[in-house]
Amino acid sequence: MWNAIAIGSHRTYKKGVQFLAKSPVSATDVPMELAITIDVEEEGLFRKSYESRTDLTGNVECLAKLDHVFRKHGIKPTLFVSYAVAVHSSHRAFLSDLARQWGAEIGIHLHHWNTPPLEPLPFPQPTPSELIPVELLRAKFNNVLDVVREMNPNPVSFRMGRFNLGAKMFRVLEDSPIQVDSSIAPLRTEYGGPDHLTAPSDPYFPDSSDPRRPGHSRILEVPITIVPIYPGIGSLAEWISSLSQATKYLVRPATKYLASLSAQPMATGLRRLKAAARLHQARQGRTLTLYFHSSELLPGGCPQHNTEADVTRFIDKIDAFLDWAIEELEARPLVMSKLRDLYDTSFADSPAQGSETDPREQASGMDMKERSRAG
To answer: By residue range, what is the domain housing residue 264?
Structure first.
């Protein structure tokens, strides 16, 4: 019975993807902001290896492979740089040059398993941040902040390693210069990674005690764009996940492959990328946030890209999606700090756009935002 349900759901899902990818732009659709983000980090993480070494960083110079695509589309990416990369002066010089050429922003990427101070903890790596003492998180953050400042004296954007953001880490961010965070992966949950089943899909100002939900923080949360097939499905998935370890295990692939559409180019075909973007726009989403890793540009740097031809196909897919998004959605590329400038803290009082919000409420929220821009 369950196999039949899964097969039927998958067929329905595929038909929906095909329909959304081909849907024309509606007269009520508005231009979208486009945030391209790259986690600039060490190799080895796709092998589930969370070591403290910082020498496996040869992939960084592969970022130059994106130059023709970014220049063609006027992309201004945000580069979230890990400690393992930023500690090398040669990488700092290379990334500083790229940032100048592209108009990019250099932000902070905290890999807590290899950023000092390194203290043993009684948990397997990657240790969930909520199990790490807050003062240890603060010390790690300050260390990566110091080396990133060698490239950008005033970094204001941040992403937590493995999207493992909880209340403890968010407390550290609120006591720091950070103004924009991008550590939320909606409809995703796993050990040492995100636990964000009910998080919104569009930028919002979080609740300081639980950054997965809207509140009144000064920090703008910019989730990577993952859109629920049906509004409210994240709450259902969270309830099912709470029943037992077995149901929790089943929820992970179900939310990833059947209950959501991801606008993330890694392991997502071009048709699904377009469908995710179109659905997000139809739900009154205003910002498309894409991410990938620098190591995905290195042959052998991830399981899907074993050869230079694999990397070239990946870059071509990004190029084709950007062609479509900028032409069809009128998407406007910008860095994280500029995105923060577009959002007023008064918007925190309106319903956040995302998995748990009724589309009519989302439209109301957009009216408020437009008024604040006009005023």
So the answer is: 31-374
